[in-house]
Design goal:
Chains A, B: Pfam families: CBS, MgtE, MgtE_N. 2 copies of one chain form a homodimer. The first copy, chain A, is α/β, with parallel strands linked by helices. Helix content of chain A is 68%, strand content 7%. Chain A has 21 helices and 7 strands. Chain A is flat.
């Protein structure tokens, strides 16, 4: 190694230590989110070194508050030992989510560096879909044999009080071997004699879900019961973990957020502006390039009516208005359908109900918007027929747009496409084609 | 009263009882959400009668699962006594939210029918902003005097066990008079001698928030600590209530959802399709009518270039493409900015950072999209200059669109407009005007 290289390595270490010092100060003064922003603003190559210099607990705290992709990049660059010890500080569900987001080699190396029991458990959890009960549950919980006494529970709590510090102890679970047979509200322990066995105190046949239960079904269970946590079992009724109400709410929020981003054309994971520019451009472009082909397709309708356009050039002013306004009306209908679907207020098969509800609103709004635009056209060119053509086309196309906008999310859902991604482009293409056709064909009859 | 009227009244009652029977069956078999859908599908005038026929507890369960506007309509139509007894079944925060959503007269009448203590408490809670700690907290909690002994707590729990059933008892709070002085993890009670006074056991100087703490600050507190609930105090450090983690997550989800709906033009409350058609049309139209005026403004740029358009009619095909595609690119930037703002990754003042990050992505994607559209124009008309004009304009306008899209949410936030509502229309108007101007002015120089 020559002198220059040593210097660089030394100065890198100094930078990392200085960065870590700044992060640590923020984390220890309860400003983890600020620390996440500071890390986000560091040059990419400095981030993992800074995290590596942090005390393990602080590093874990910080990693938990990063977006998944950024956390993954950092964990992949740390040595497997350091990454493993950071991950061991986190709760089982967070740990599994992070491992699942790593490239295969890093995931393997880090699991190797973890304790065999935790590695095995983490691998189990990684197998679940993120939006299932198995993917949302934590495995940290209190479970006692049904034959144990109240006294035995008290002793166990006293012995492991440090270890249990971060566990939700509102309820403990009662098992025969691994099989869940009851839940025990901890408050009932206060009132019981110390020699009572738990099977006399416990609530029998408790509500539980299986590890495959999906997000929407979980939502129903939590809606129907005021519990803060619900036990998760496998097909053999063996206790696997517990889903907390706050984890469920968190997952729902993440789901809605990802729908919003997808509907605006941010696909393939959340974008933050500290990602490399080519990565950001590539992701956005994948969506844009599909859209531009659909746009060219729609505009080809205009190309077929060039003669009409040449003779009434004023129409060219109104084509983008009709395209934009139909898009707006249709998007309103898409948003209401997406919302009603996620609330369970409509089933994907109820196309006719949605159409009936939309067409009436579309008729009212279409007439209002059509009159507005028709009046604008009339006053501009003093041409009644131009006003009628433009206003009439917008009125009709508004009805088309709300019908498509309302029904497309249901159709997408029914045929297992993602309604958040596909609804917008389909809506725009169809309403553009239809709008251009309406205004230009009416013009070719009435104006030319 | 004549015979016909009696018949109608009788048959109304029978309908209400039959409806209530159906709802009750669903609610009691843990399908409250299905009951909400059934109610949603009933004719508007039958809904409150059906709810009025339900047992109070079932009615409360159902009311809690309706959208706020629908719940308000039903409560307003019930007699104040019935409405009050339903509301008294709900937790303090839900009750206050519902009362706040009623018309003033109904709210007054129902509060009059409630017990004076609960009415007073509800009025207090109604004064808070919904997204503040005061608006999110529940007042149901366990608080004990610091001089009480462990034995006294056990006795109190035993005595009120039924009443405390729905209270989160993970922690109880320790007070001197009304002043919060400590928190007491319930598990620590198990390990303590029964004669110990609470001030010896409690965690002193607990983390708390004030009733005015805003949603984003609350999020930070919960991010920095793993607590399931955080006590809320006033300026005099008096204990007012507790905000639960799941309530916070719920509020954040509602916030994001409302942003999504607003960005798609659903303003003034969530729309469900069982609302009256004129109400739905009116709400959507208020947003559309602003948009159409902005659209006409943008299209007036085209009107100024009619001569250019007449001589190169092919341009009319590309105007809507440029408008739509710029809108798509800009909306992607809006979505990323909205998200970074809500994550706290950018501050509203960081315009230049956002612009720098956007313009580079815009340049890459603008070039790709410009080449695509330019090639399409060239192959269609075998006209190199047409391709250059159309492609060049789209390339430049993509850069404009991402710049505006990225920066507008920050500007809106800085000047206290709602970025979810205002960003879209501003983006569309500016990029349309700019796009039309670019393509038509370039054409007037290069093509005519």
């Amino acid at each position: 190694m020559n002198l220059a290289e040593t210097d660089t390595a030394d100065s890198d270490l100094v930078t990392a230590q200085e960065n870590a010092e700044e992060l640590r100060g923020l984390i220890e003064s309860d400003a983890v989110n600020d620390a996440a922003v500071v890390l986000d603003r560091m040059p990419e190559e400095e981030r993992s070194a800074a995290v590596g210099e942090l005390p393990t607990e602080a590093a874990a705290d910080l990693i938990e508050h990063l977006l998944e992709q950024q956390a993954a990049e950092i964990l992949e660059q740390l040595t497997p030992d350091v990454a493993a010890s950071i991950l061991e500080e986190l709760t089982s569900d967070v740990r599994a989510d992070l491992i699942a987001g790593l490239d295969a080699q890093s995931a393997f190396d880090i699991l190797q560096a973890m304790s065999p029991v935790e590695a095995e458990e983490t691998k189990e959890l990684c197998r679940y879909e993120p939006d299932s009960a198995g993917g949302l549950m934590v495995t940290e919980l209190l479970a006692f044999e049904s034959t144990s006494t109240v006294q035995a529970v008290f002793d166990d709590l006293a012995e492991h009080s440090e270890e249990y510090r971060d566990i939700d102890v509102q309820y403990s679970f009662v098992v025969d071997g691994k099989r869940l047979v009851g839940v025990l509200p901890m408050r009932d322990l206060f009132l019981a004699k110390r020699s009572t066995p738990l099977f006399e105190l416990m609530i029998k046949d408790p509500i539980s879900v299986t590890d495959r239960t999906q997000l929407s079904a979980l939502e129903d269970v939590f809606d129907n019961h005021s519990f803060l946590g619900i036990p998760v079992v496998n097909e053999s009724q063996e206790l696997l973990g517990v889903v907390q109400r706050s984890s469920l709410e968190h997952a729902i929020a993440a789901h809605d957020r990802s729908d919003y981003l997808k509907s605006q054309g941010i696909i393939g994971g959340e974008e933050i502006r500290s990602l490399p520019v080519f990565e950001r451009a590539r992701r956005r472009l994948s969506w844009l390039s599909v859209n531009i082909l659909l746009n060219i397709l729609a505009a080809s309708v205009i190309a077929m009516y060039q003669d009409t356009l040449s003779s009434v050039i004023a129409l060219a002013v109104f084509l983008p208005i009709i395209s934009d306004m139909s898009g707006c009306s249709g998007n309103q209908a898409v948003a209401v359908s997406m919302r009603e679907l996620s609330l369970g207020l409509i089933r994907p098969a109820e196309l006719m109900r949605v159409w009936g509800k939309e067409i009436s609103v579309g008729a009212i709004n279409g007439m209002c918007l059509g009159m507005l635009v028709g009046a604008a056209a009339f006053f501009w060119k003093a041409d009644v027929m131009l006003g009628i053509v433009v206003g009439g086309a917008l009125c009709l196309n508004t009805m088309v747009a709300v019908s498509i906008g309302g029904m497309v999310p249901l159709l997408m859902k029914r045929f297992h496409f993602d309604p958040a991604i596909a609804s917008g482009p389909i809506l725009t293409t169809v309403t553009d084609m239809c709008g251009f056709f309406l205004v230009l064909s009416m013009a070719s009859v009435l104006l030319v």
